[in-house]
Amino acid sequence: MMGSADEALNAYQLPKPLPIWLNPAYARHIVKGNFMTLSARPKTVEEGEWVAHQVVEHYRNLWNFVRVIYEKEEDGKTLCNSTTCPRMSAGANHSYTWLNSRFEPIELPAFEYITLMQRWISGKIDDTKMFPTEASGVSFSHNPQITTTALLNGPDEWVGKRSGFPQEFFGICQTIFLQMFRVYAHLYWAHYTEPFYHLNLEKQLNSCFSHFVLTATALDLLKPQELEPMQPLIDLWAANGTFPPESKAYEYANLKVGQRLLQLAGMA
Ligand SMILES: [Zn+2]
């Protein structure tokens, strides 16, 4: 049994005052209407094609925000640099290490981590063995032979097999989504106010990230425990109606915490 909303909220060990992105007044987004339609797979599209398409789309969205923290200031430094962000962190409680060529975990400044991550993801997306179809230009031609249910029974079946994706395709896509999630978490924890809020980009960031979470959870590209650094925002978005009750993102949220956050802001 979950404790009270306040106990659950305290367990997150969030800084006080709370980060502004947890204030419901700042957690708004642009898209009105039903987000589900954006992440639901058209019935005639094979699952592998759909996952590939989502990887490319969400990577493109995320990169628009990363470009902003890569802009050089007047002093010639980027907004995210080794002084501002000596680690790839998401608040005080989470930081991520990179694996070097000998598969040893190493701590890197966020800027370097994100650059390596970008190189790694681009390498995968551009690898025609991994992404055999032009995922960004998928036309989703209607193919009556593609059924809505995935036939994933037994070791000889995998997501994307029928469209020519290799067996490790889905695992790679999960890793790509996990890396993208870490970047979003860094953007929220380290750069939400400066630059995004000050550039009036916070609604765009919220739109892209909420859509990203809906897609990632719906397609099992992220596991619930991997969402931890952003859990309170997910709770809030379940409570304020951003995530529809039928979505997996909603299922993973602690609704009581979300409602408490709305209360704290005098909005419930
Ligand atoms: Zn940073």
UniProtKB/TrEMBL annotation:
| Gene3D superfamilies (alphabetical) | MOB kinase activator
Q: Which domain of life is it from?
A: Eukaryota
Please name the SMART domains in this protein's record: Mob1_phocein
Which InterPro entries has this protein been placed in? MOB_kinase_act_fam, MOB_kinase_act_sf
Task: Enumerate the residues binding Zn(2+).
Answer: C80, C85, H186, H191
Q: Which UniProt keywords apply?
A: Metal-binding, Zinc
The answer to whether UniProt assigns keyword Lyase to this entry is no
Q: Fetch the Pfam families from UniProt.
A: Mob1_phocein
Report the PANTHER family cross-referenced here: MPS ONE BINDER KINASE ACTIVATOR-LIKE MOB
Under which name does UniProt file this protein? Mob1/phocein
Tell me what organism the protein belongs to.
Immersiella caudata
